[in-house]
What does this fold into?
Amino acid sequence: MTPSLEDSLEHVQADVTQSRKCERLVAWRESVAADPPLRYRGQGYWARPVPGFGDPKARLLIVGLAPAAHGGNRTGRVFTGDRSGDWLFSALHRAGFANQSTSEHRDDGLQLSDAYITAVVHCAPPDNKPTPQERDNCLPYLAREMALLTDLRVIVCLGAYALDGVARVLGLRPRPKFGHGAEFLLGDGRTIICSFHPSQQNTFTGKLTEAMFDAVFSRAKSLAASPVTRGT
It folds into this structure.
């Protein structure tokens, strides 16, 4: 996909935050905000679609599933204010992609360098399970982001859902098979790397360890800095 001359990451972010395409997700994100858990009572919830953010010159793109109901849906920034974000930003900080290891709210000073973070779906879905139509409503935003990140070299997919979304945007056939650490070299020289999602289900059980996660971003950093190798 080639971006139009008028498009920009700022335009994508604005379009995302104004979207009300999915009635079920609109109702869910707003109902969660209206009746939050006791620990978040009194906090103003974002309760809108959560846009991607990061360095517009990023060589690394990180793609997740969707914002968490009491994470990004509360704070207004993807992977911010939840345990998954704690894992992600700690790893990015260790790899040199983030200036700090924590991400608690939109104005906490976090800055990404050479990295951009987004999601396949931009609203928090019930049970973390968007419908196929909700996914398809959001995929054009991901396509625009990928086209506008003109220095992009590496795409880290956090989970099989993220890999599926990226594969749909790129029109990959056959669809690549997910596996932690799996890599796929694209015809234009970009590389997809797969990682287990840093969800509590994966990190609490040891399915994803800190060392495994660090290895993904170490590899991504190495590939981002290496000369382009065109695939077949």
